[in-house]
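ok trying this again, last paste got cut off
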Amino acid sequence: MRRPGLRDVAALAGVSVKTVSNVVNGTGRVTAPTRERVEAAVAALGYRPNMAARNLRRGRTEVITLAVPELTAPYFAELADAMIRAAEPRSLTVLIDQTQGNLERERLTFQGERLQQSDGLIFSPLAMPADELARRTDTVPMVLLGEHAPDCPHDRVVIDNHAAAALATEHLIGLGRRAIAAIGPQPRGSHPTSQLRLDGFRDTLAAHGMSADPALLASVESFHRADGAAAMNRLLAQHRRPDAVFCFNDLLALGAVRAAHDHGLRVPQDIAVIGFDGIEEGAFSTPTLSTVTPDKRQIAEAALDLLASRTDDADGPPRTVTVAHELAVRDSTGTGTGGRLGTGTGGRPPTADGVGAGRAASG
């Protein structure tokens, strides 16, 4: 059966095709009685605009690409879900590109070779160096997720990772813990987010007259559960054992909790553990996981807002939106209340990223 078109609606309503187009597209001047006749004809015929043709005329596809390192990491899976939910009311379709944190795959996305059908790119790079990010020449609008070089000439959505790490560290100090370890440091320059969280950890200890014992800084190659378990095993093999651990993402923390259990330690009685990301899995682990929680819904909304405005202002200066975070206090640090303490936006308007998995922090 032939799909009804503008001419069919026009014939039924007794108006011109142009008038029907004005009503459907919300353009031009149409009197109220005429609009009502056209809308009644649209309803009677079950007319639906040809969006492909409309977008072709506008030069847009209503499709955007979200490029993330890996969807097996719960943080990125939850972020993708938030992005799709935020895009739906905007009539946008989200394509997911999994780069696996591989530099060549990131380049293919970043330089537009995978963006033939996209109006814009929301990109969480892992391997790409800051100087290469700065040299992008592709004209497809882009929003970065996470910290990169301070002078990076692209719109981006971040959280204040220094303040967020400080919030987690303050919580552990407030519990009376003094041998506080960190799982997640990486070689300087590997990823800015990891370094910012380490700096926030160190600075908070220093503010309380404590120093970050190098022996209690457990570096990792990637941010998966196995890396967290291996790092905790190394910490517990030392003469000075930690009584608390700040992990730079929730997967590291879940691995650390498992390793502590394997060593016969109780969490949090013998060692408190806190993570970062606020993934759903942490609310159902045993014990439930205390964590710094970025607002993923705000990340998605802010990224889409930036992308939409960049379509209309391609040459404007780069903008940074900082998303809120909060501390979810659960059993792994001893409260058992599942409550939330403290929020932060880094002193700027509400705006977050987060660490997912991969070789480095995702934010």
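PB: full thing came through this time. The chain has twelve helices and 13 strands.
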